[in-house]
Fold this protein.
Amino acid sequence: MITPLHHGDSNFNAGLLTAHKLQPINTTITLSDANRIWDVIVVGAGPGGSVAARQLALLGSSVLLVDRASFPRSKVCGSCLNGNALATLDSLGLGHLIAANGAVPLRKFQLSVRKRTASLQIPTGVALSRIRLDVALVNAAIDAGAQFLPETNIVVEQNLTRNKKYRYVTARCGSGQSLLKARIVVAADGLGARRVDPKDPTRSQIIDRHSRVGAGVMLEKIHVPDWCKPGVVFMCCGKGGYVGLVVLEDGRLDVAAALDPMSLLSLETEKNQSRPGILATSIIVESGLPRIDNLVYAPWRGTTQLTRRPKQVADHRMFVIGDAAGYVEPFTGEGIAWALATGAAVAPLAHKASQQWQPAFVDYWCKSHAGLIGRRQRICRLMGQLLRHPGLVGLAVSAINIAPAIARPIFNQLNATTLDCTTNRRLPELA
Ligand SMILES: Cc1cc2nc3c(=O)[nH]c(=O)nc-3n(C[C@H](O)[C@H](O)[C@H](O)COP(=O)(O)OP(=O)(O)OC[C@H]3O[C@@H](n4cnc5c(N)ncnc54)[C@H](O)[C@@H]3O)c2cc1C
């Protein structure tokens, strides 16, 4: 329906490098040299995996950070970091990366539905392209001592009878393949659980049957309409989903949407590739904002269903973090904050578990994870349901226009820091 992401597409990546003047991140280790015992293998070098790998390396673990993509790589995302994400980066000593990469401070959130608009001040937040953020975090992990192996696809072995002291993963890089072993695996592979063998029935995910799918595209600076001002997040809601627009540090417009799959399918068009652009354009116009030229035929990219979670977020010698541990909807712009917080929180646990594994760690991470982001995901899920009723959102917009203060508690909640609640919790005593 929507073009899947082609992270490893060399033409696409070459274009990104030129546009962003970013250096490719070279592998720090070959697949054959990676064939040794690791304290921790981290699968996926998004914000969650990179932060986990960095923190683990700082704690003294030997860490292999693996990603199937080559970096820099793009990612369907609204590219907004909220106060919670910024506070986590600050507390890890990574706050300087935000300004160093030219992030655009956000001041205003403008919600439009049925030709009604409400504007809210954003207390803290920035827009920073994922291509820059993710490169900065991978480099921070490498600087801390993690080894980085890009363009390598991982499948976590489910056969636990081999040797219970390790967790095995099959790594495929080009025509090479190797069975790697680690005392702990941190799964940070994002939506869709691609690390899992699709034939394995035990690793299934619970997917919300009303789930929307994600879609995104970048518009070059020359195509950005004048009314799209830097520092403002434009959020347009309609029957077929919602679309967020934000100007990035390089002047491009990040267009990210959560779309109803049935609305996409019901569109009358010969070209499947145009469906997200057509639906996003109709949502923008329905909300009352002007039509954006070039959006329909822009090269949209898509995601699988968004609202999902695995049956459990830990297993024998494995902890799951970030989107891989469950995602809801992008409306509140919290996914990066959740990935950073769970990546930072898992590090001391994974470090300790690599020294001496205890089955109690499984339950511990399941509870810690729920404590860390469970409540926020419930709020996000509620908002996702509200957004299915543009009439109700219209009433909310009118109410906010009369009394803007009613939205403040929600904004404060979304921006509140989550990290402290687990990093300060005592890890289970080793037997
Ligand atoms: C439309 C949309 C808009 C969004 N807008 C925002 C926003 O404005 N703000 C916000 O905070 N969040 C937003 N999000 C959510 C945010 O993008 C995610 O929550 C965030 O990227 C999660 O980070 P992660 O590290 O868990 O996973 P990811 O960033 O997805 O990284 C996972 C990595 O794992 C790698 N990988 C996958 N499978 C394998 C494998 N088998 N072997 C090796 N590597 C593998 C991938 O290549 C990828 O690099 C949005 C999401 C969508 C869909």
Observations:
- The radius of gyration is 21 Å.
- The chain has twelve helices and 20 strands.
- Residues 360-386 form the longest helix (27 residues).
- The first strand starts at residue 37 and ends at 43.
